[in-house]
Automatic annotation (TrEMBL):
It holds the Pfam family Cytidylate_kin. Residues 17-221 form the Cytidylate kinase domain. This is Cytidylate kinase. Keywords: ATP-binding, Cytoplasm, Kinase, Nucleotide-binding, Transferase. ATP binds at residues 21-29. Belongs to the cytidylate kinase family. Type 1 subfamily. One of its GO terms (molecular function) is kinase activity. Its main location: cytoplasm. The keyword Coiled coil does not apply. The keyword ATP-binding applies. It comes from the Bacteria. SUPFAM superfamilies: P-loop containing nucleoside triphosphate hydrolases (SSF52540). It catalyses: dCMP + ATP = dCDP + ADP; CMP + ATP = CDP + ADP.
C-alpha cells in the first residue's frame, strides 16, 4: 500500500496515541472518541488488514498464502478501506491469518506511519488502533493504551453487536472464534499482539463506555501534555 509520503518522519508537534488490544475489547469506540475529543485523526488499522483479507477472498485467494496476500497488500488503495464487506463473516478471521505474514505487515507499515506522523492539515495528530501500534508502528507514541476485557465479556459484547445487526449467532461460537483469533494474534512471530512495556493496561470488563473513555482521556492528557480538547 502506498503511503502519502514515502518516508514518514515524525512531525515535531504531532500527538500520536496508540490503542492496542484484542478483538471486541472496545478499543475502536474508545479510539474514535479520543480522536474526536482531541482533534486527532483516527485510523482503524484492523480495517487495513481486513481489506487485504476481503480482497483476497473475493478473488478466490487463500489467506494462508503469504505471496498472494502480500501482492494484495502492496496493491491496496485507500478506496479498498471503504469496502462494504470488511465486517462480513469470516473476514476478521482471514485478516488475522493474513496479518501473520511478515511481508504483508511490511507492505502496510509505511501507510500507517504516514497517517500517524503526517496527519491531515488542521489535525493535531492521530490515534491508531490495532495490535502492534505501541510496539512496532509507533513505538514513540506519547500515550499507549492496551485495552482489554475478559474473553467472556468481549464475547458477550460481540454477540450483542451481531444480534443488533440482525446476524443470529450462537454465543459459544462467538467466544470460540474470539479465543482462536486472540491466540493467533498473540502467538505469531511477526509483531505479535502484546502490551508495550510503557503502555497503560485498561481493563474495560467492569467499565461502561463512558467510564472507559474518561479514564483513557485522563491518561492521554497526562502523558501527551494536552491541557484542552
Ligand atoms: O481490529 P480488527 O479485529 O478489525 O483486526 C482484524 C485482524 O487484523 C486482527 O485479528 C489481527 C490483525 N491486525 C493486526 O495484526 N495488526 C493490527 N495493527 C491491526 C489488526
Amino acid at each position: 500500500m502506498s503511503a502519502r509520503t514515502s518516508q514518514a518522519t515524525p512531525r515535531d508537534d504531532a500527538i500520536v496515541v496508540a490503542v492496542d488490544g484484542p478483538a471486541a475489547a472496545g478499543k475502536g469506540t474508545l479510539a474514535r472518541r479520543l480522536a474526536a475529543a482531541l482533534n486527532l485523526v483516527y485510523l482503524d488499522t484492523g480495517s487495513i488488514y481486513r481489506a487485504v483479507a476481503a480482497k483476497l477472498l473475493a478473488g478466490g485467494g487463500d489467506p494462508a498464502d503469504a505471496d498472494a496476500a502480500s501482492r494484495v497488500a502492496r496493491a491496496l488503495s485507500s478506496a479498498d478501506l471503504d469496502r462494504d464487506d470488511l465486517r462480513a463473516e469470516g473476514v476478521g478471521a482471514a485478516a488475522s491469518v493474513v496479518s501473520a505474514h511478515q511481508a504483508v505487515r511490511e507492505a502496510l507499515l509505511e501507510f500507517q506511519r504516514a497517517v500517524a506522523f503526517d496527519p491531515p492539515a488542521g489535525r493535531a495528530g492521530a490515534v491508531l488502533d490495532g495490535r502492534d501500534i505501541g510496539t512496532v508502528v509507533c513505538p514513540d507514541a506519547c500515550a499507549k493504551l492496551f485495552v482489554t476485557a475478559s474473553l467472556e465479556e468481549r464475547a458477550r459484547r460481540r454477540h450483542e453487536e451481531l444480534l443488533g445487526r440482525g446476524e443470529a449467532r450462537i454465543y459459544a461460537r462467538v467466544l470460540e472464534d474470539l479465543k482462536e483469533r486472540d491466540e493467533r494474534d498473540a502467538a505469531r512471530d511477526a509483531a505479535p499482539m502484546t502490551a508495550a512495556a510503557d503502555a497503560v493496561v485498561l481493563d474495560t470488563s467492569d467499565l461502561d463506555v463512558d467510564a472507559a473513555f474518561e479514564r483513557a482521556l485522563d491518561i492521554v492528557r497526562a502523558r501527551c501534555g494536552v491541557t484542552a480538547g
